[in-house]
TrEMBL record:
It is a multi-pass membrane protein. The lineage of its organism: Bacteria, Bacillati, Actinomycetota, Actinomycetes, Kitasatosporales. The keyword Glycosyltransferase does not apply. Pfam families: FtsX, MacB_PCD. It is found in: Cell membrane. Keywords: Cell membrane, Membrane, Transmembrane, Transmembrane helix. Belongs to the ABC-4 integral membrane protein family. It comes from Streptomyces enissocaesilis. The chain crosses the membrane at residues 271-297, 320-344, 364-386, 413-432, 444-477, 498-518, 733-758, 783-803, 823-843. This is FtsX-like permease family protein. Residues 276-396, 737-852 form the ABC3 transporter permease C-terminal domain. Residues 58-79 are annotated as: Disordered.
Amino acid sequence: MTVVKTSLRNFVAHKGRMALSAVAVLLSVAFVCGTLVFTDTVNTTFDKLFASTAADVTVSPESAGSDGQGPRTGRPETLPASAVRQVAKADGVKSAEGAVASTSVTVVNGDNKRMGSDDGAPTVAGNWTRGDLKSMEITSGHAPRGPTEVMVDADTADKHGLSLGDELRTIAVTGDISARISGIASFKVTNPGATVVYFDTATSQRKLLGKPDVYTHIAVTAEQGVSDKRLKQHVAGALGGADGPYKLQTAKETADSGREEIGSMLDVMKYAMLGFAGIAFLVGIFLIVNTFSMLVAQRTREIGLMRAIGSSRRQINRSVLVEALLLGTFGSILGVGAGVGLAVGLMQLMGAVGLELSTEDLTVAWTTPAVGLALGIVVTVVAAYIPARRAGKVSPMAALRDAGTPADGRAGWIRAGLGLALSGAGGTLLYLTTRADKASEGSLFLGGGVVLTLIGFIVVGPLLAGVVVRAISAVVLRMFGPVGRMAERNALRNPRRTGATGAALMIGLALVACLSVVGSSMVASATEELDKSVGADFIIQSGPSGPIVPGAEKALRAAPDIEHVTSYKMIEVELTSPDGKTETEELAAADPTYAEDLRRETVAGELGAAYGKNAMSVGDDYANRHGIRVGDTMTVAFKGGETAKLRIAAITSDETNVDKGAMYTNVTTAAQYLPADRVPPNLIMFAKAVDGKEDAAYAGLKDALAAYPQFTVQNQTDFKQDLKDEVGQLLNIVYGLLALAIIVAVLGVVNTLALSVVERTREIGLMRAIGLSRRQLRRMIRLESVVIALFGALLGLGLGMGWGTSAQKLLALEGLGVLEIPWTTIVAVFVASAFVGLLAALVPAFRAGRMNVLDAIATE
């Protein structure tokens, strides 16, 4: 009980010094809890949606993908109306209703403005059925009654200012549907952001599916007392057994399937954010270790008195750990609350990109605060263990005779040797990464090298501080005369403390530098590859709602000042090579002009010959695996079509990043073996302008696609800039997440300086007494902060560039062979670190300047 009282008294007495450490714990716990609350809320939202929309049993074509669509056809797979009648006769069936749903659509208003999300949530078009009343209710107007009427969901209507009578155009592979809004329906549960439009059944079948009397799925409702599992068995029997051409799912199976699909997308985000939270925890450990080390050092005389009057080492150790327990508990409790706020902020942020989430579905499972509290408390106590153990080792007589914890020179040399050994081992692994022949092998070397060099630099930090700080000081501090020299000596006074403070900043900046090198190298490599390989003037890309529809293709081919337009389709096939092995692959079917639009090197044959009748090409990796040579014959089974014998006319080099591993054939060859409704639309298209009319052709293509806003026309400059922007946006997100770790590191600098000022109170008073001005004192502390920040930045940026350079060598094995160091970013981060140091020193320097000279001198 005495230990607890003493710890509580010390905690309250040093509450100001504990505050910044508590903030570090708070931020880290908040990130973990915010991530868990956010993902649980998303799961709750979709669980409610799936529960309200899933039928007791859903019947769909076996060949349909998870979204119900066909293989790159841009249209859903269908089942005949006769299947609905068969299902309706099965035992236990109360009702069976044929439904139509397509996600490969784009909805635009009268101004050709898209009504759907650019990314994230889908746009869904289908027929209005009785089953939709489970999840929707008509709040205005009425359901569509003919081909000129459409109903839209209320969220889309509110977002885009739509009202009854407004005209909407729905663009699909099978054609456009122009109709006026006859009704508006509201979701009974949260709509995660989908745009939904409804037509009458006949219009949906004819316009979305391309033929009457077909559906995409059947919604089956069970009679009273019939379980979904039993209903599924009855329906399967009515359709000819479980081995028929249909996929049957109960409501639970449908919901589980949807949850699994959503979960796989969320997992990437969830684990990435938890990874950054882990980095923040790691950085926070340095802050906590420094805080308790300095507090123990400042209380050495007090600890000696306690030992002299009978306190044991265990009691002293336990006293410090109880303080850490109080700190961890306080910071973690606040962190759990902040995490809920962070989750709400993430929900608002996701709303901006199309994923709408309601705070009504906010889910805080009991495990979330439990995990947050456990992590925060355990990390804090573990971080405080070394200072607590050091406090317990203080002997009473040594403590009463001299302030400060005992230094262990032998331990310092062991630490330095261990750090150098770990750094050397990590450097060796990074070197082996650059010499690896396979990416899988090199990634293991890279991971090991990153971990070992990071740990090594942390361990050897005190040794590096003595060298690096002197070097930085010679450049930065010498111009400030005696004040600069005092700042340098202060930074070097306790190398262990300086090393730990700098290491906290080093971790975040090392990751920033590594990712900057990797991102810049990817962009530079892709740009070089485009310059070398792409001969087309323009690239027309499909949008998130599916492939390029025939209407858009027709408009493109009619554009003026165009020499040629090239089709590019992806077709799923089963290839049987001459060695008898059969594999499912994708065959790129293109016009012969594609050989001009994309310059591919061949190791055998001519690529142009692959676009001849009944001919194709393969990549050299595939050819080497199967012993294929030019002139060999491949058996190609087109999915949904016939089987063909195609001659190998060319083997392309896979030493590329554009279309690596692609197999080519002519679009006319593919069309010869596929029914017309199984020939997929273009996934991408290319265009070449008439010489000298590139600008006019560019404008003409954009005008041609004005009615199809889901597709983009880019020249090579646009394409490169788009690639750069995409990588830049990804890096900015990562930098934003790393900012959490950097903020915690800055708090560590602030805390170190604040405690250092308290530790040197008497010294500061003496310096002021012999003539040091307030201004000079503040400058000295600011310069000390700057040199510590630059020390951490120099180590971090150097380490990160080493990681990034090694990682780029792995990318080179995948065709991204250009190494580019973003010196502008590196220099900017280094300079910004100096300003971070200045910012961190503002409060400690201000407090030091306000000290009363006589009171400071009188301090023991």
